[in-house]
Amino acid sequence: MKIAAAQIASACGLIGHNIARQVAAIRQAADAQVQAVFFPELSLTGYQPALAARLAIETDDARLDVFQSLSDRFGLLIATSAPLRVAHGVAIALFVFQPHRPRTTYAKQHLHEDERSVFTPGHGLRTYVCANQVLAPAICYESLQSCHAQQAAAAGATLYFTSVAKSSRGVAAAYSHYPEIARTFGMAVVMANCVGATADYVGAGGSAAWDASGELIVQADGDEEALVIYDAKVGTGRVVGLRA
């Protein structure tokens, strides 16, 4: 199985623009013959907690129908991220599209202390089967909590995909932690980070993949928009710059 982590910049609050940019990235990922592609945390709106309540969307938002169409057409698992309106507030969510199946969401369970006044935590982990791999999602801060990786491993995950919005400091923490959880739990780790300005820092890129032994296989630069493609079957990777 080949999975692409899309390292991409988001325009603050411009959901339509960000959808169009992600659609182009998905088409490029399909050209690269991947089976799954995922995007950074809150990449449909930009990481802007102060605006989350205004920008939050519903699970069935019609603007996301294009992702289902692309999933059906190319046979792709697609995961993108936005604030999700839930019963008791707003969650940080991944919206997951699989070919000819209803869309699902996964809400971040473990919130950073700076997020707790704005967002509502999710409950429960989801896994997704794609090309004989069991994929488990993690969203930014929780991907640095060993208990979350343990939960994914207990659910049978063979690949842990982390959708993040990290500064250079956060990327350094990820590069220290992810090899350890890969080795401990015997699952590959693939990270999609943003580039460009967020609420109060600059996304530091560095999207990457580690194999199940914790070896760093492929990584992007800190400021390029790119697809980081990891081939889980043969344990190789490559970086493909996103077309303008």
What characteristic shape results from the CA principal axes? globular
Distance between the termini: 27 Å
**What is the second-level CATH architecture of the domain at 2-125 and 190-210 and 217-241?**
4-Layer Sandwich
Please identify the top-level CATH class of the domain at 2-125 and 190-210 and 217-241: Alpha Beta
- The SS-based structural class is alpha/beta
What is the arithmetic mean of pLDDT? 98
* Strand/helix succession: EHEHHEEEEEHEHEEEEEEE
Radius of gyration, whole Å: 16 Å
How many helices? The count is: 5
Strand content: 25-35%
Low-confidence stretches: none
What's the CATH topology label of the domain at 2-125 and 190-210 and 217-241? Nitrilase/N-carbamoyl-D-aminoacid amidohydrolase
- Let me know the number of strands: 15
**Arrangement of strands in the largest sheet:** 5-4-3-2-1-14-15
Q: Please name the fourth-level CATH homologous superfamily of the domain at 2-125 and 190-210 and 217-241.
A: Carbon-nitrogen hydrolase
Biggest sheet layout: 7 strands, mixed
**Helix-residue proportion:** 10-25%
Give a written overview of the molecule.
This protein has 244 residues and is α/β, with parallel strands linked by helices. The chain has a domain at 2-125 and 190-210 and 217-241: 4-Layer Sandwich (Nitrilase/N-carbamoyl-D-aminoacid amidohydrolase), CATH 3.60.110.10. It has 5 helices and 15 strands. Helix 1 packs parallel to helix 3 (65-74). The protein is globular. The model has no long low-confidence stretch (mean pLDDT 98).
